[in-house]
TrEMBL record:
Key words of the record: Oxidoreductase
GO MF terms, alphabetically ordered: oxidoreductase activity
PANTHER family per the UniProt record, alphabetical: PHOSPHATIDYLINOSITOL-GLYCAN BIOSYNTHESIS CLASS F PROTEIN (PTHR43157:SF31), PHOSPHATIDYLINOSITOL-GLYCAN BIOSYNTHESIS CLASS F PROTEIN-RELATED (PTHR43157)
Listed InterPro entries: NAD(P)-bd_dom_sf (IPR036291), SDR_fam (IPR002347)
Descriptive protein name: Short-chain dehydrogenase
Gene3D superfamilies, sorted: NAD(P)-binding Rossmann-like Domain
Length: 322
């Protein structure tokens, strides 16, 4: 593990301004699920700062609409698409090869699926759909991205958790939720799995002497009805906007929900193992670092989840010192 003295000092960012981002020209960032929702706005904001952004999306048509939307707002935007289906583990190596990059400054593990109702569904690989997509898919993707991230000094893995994970605990004996299936709890547990993964990954990166850092974010509460229109894939009517106005006091649009991930990618004062979330009760507002919730520090559960994830995916994200 590097000594404190060997950790490079970073410029202190006293006040982060979401509307005045640092210049990101030359940075290359992959955003999973960058074709819609929060991921779209992460991509739009990073492209606006000058980064080259790759949208990882399973739907080419949606990705092309997102790219056109960004291009219409950001002159000279550098945005492209790679096919990415997190629910199909065998396809992920080809997605990484299709990036065609020799370096990657950050990946934002943003894509997610949330089911509200039974029946329990499974991925192509036979894993419960939310655990399989949100956690196992990103776990395996990180494994395939490790060589690219390793060759990029100071690269970052930014994992999207959720406020919903605050009130649940993992069931290590039933990670695939085959018993007593409750979709909302299963979703929350899949997000907790991602958060434990992010922190375990950072511990392993530090132990390996890697310069890659793993940062955790959660976007607060974000509603499409509070999100500015981005036609043709997201159109908010005036009626919708007015009727949901009071909700804006508690939660936010997906444009603002993108701020924690954008800060986690671009702010050098945010470090591996930290969590960035909205300032107001973790639900809305400017992005700040939030103390880790107590159960996120459970490294024993995180290590057991890591081992189970290796078994289930046949992958292990491995990073070496540069
Ligand atoms: N919205 C909230 O209040 C909230 C709160 C806490 C955490 N989060 C987290 O924030 C992230 C984004 O949420 P959101 O509200 O923006 O969701 P969203 O609007 O539903 O967008 C989800 C994105 O994930 C993609 N996706 C789903 N399954 C995929 C797969 N198998 N392979 C590749 N991409 C896939 C979707 O692609 P398609 O367009 O092809 O479906 C879409 O781009 C998620 O991780 C979510 O858990 C959201």
């Amino acid at each position: 593990m590097p000594s404190v003295a060997s950790i490079p000092s970073v410029p202190r960012v006293l006040q982060w301004d979401v509307h005045r981002l640092p210049n990101a020209v030359g940075k290359r960032v992959l955003v999973t699920g960058g074709n819609a929702g929060i991921g779209y706005f992460v991509a739009e904001q990073l492209a606006g700062a000058g980064a080259t952004v790759v949208l990882g999306s399973r739907d080419t048509g949606k990705a092309e609409e997102a790219i056109a939307s960004i291009a219409s707002r950001v002159p000279d935007a550098r945005v492209k698409h790679v096919p990415l289906d997190l629910a199909d583990l065998a396809s992920l190596k080809a997605s990484v090869d299709a990036l065609g990059l020799d370096r990657l400054d950050a990946v934002v593990l943003n894509a997610g699926v949330a089911l509200d109702h039974p029946p329990r569904r499974e991925t192509k690989d036979g894993h419960e759909l939310m655990f399989g997509t949100n956690h196992l898919g990103h776990f395996a993707l990180t494994h395939h991205l490790a060589p690219l991230l390793t060759t990029t000094p100071g690269s970052r893995v930014v994992t999207t958790g959720s406020f919903a994970a605050k009130s649940v605990r993992l069931d290590l004996d039933d990670l695939q939720n085959t018993h007593d299936y409750q979709p909302k709890r299963t979703y929350s547990r899949s997000k907790l799995a991602q958060m434990l993964f992010a922190l375990e990954l950072d511990r392993r990166l530090r132990a390996a002497g890697s310069t890659t850092e793993s940062v955790l974010v959660h976007p607060g509460g974000a509603l499409d009805s509070l999100t500015p229109s981005r036609p043709p894939f997201h159109v908010r009517t005036t009626g919708e906007r007015l009727s949901r106005l009071p909700l804006g006091l508690v939660v936010q649009g997906k444009d603002a929900a993108a701020w924690p991930a954008v800060r986690a990618v671009l702010d050098p004062s945010v470090r591996g193992g930290q969590m960035v979330s909205p300032r107001a009760f973790g639900l809305r507002g400017a992005p700040r670092t939030e103390p880790l919730w107590k159960h996120l520090a459970d490294s024993t559960t995180a290590a057991r989840l890591w081992a189970a994830s290796c078994d289930l995916t046949g992958c292990e994200p491995t990073f070496t010192a540069p």
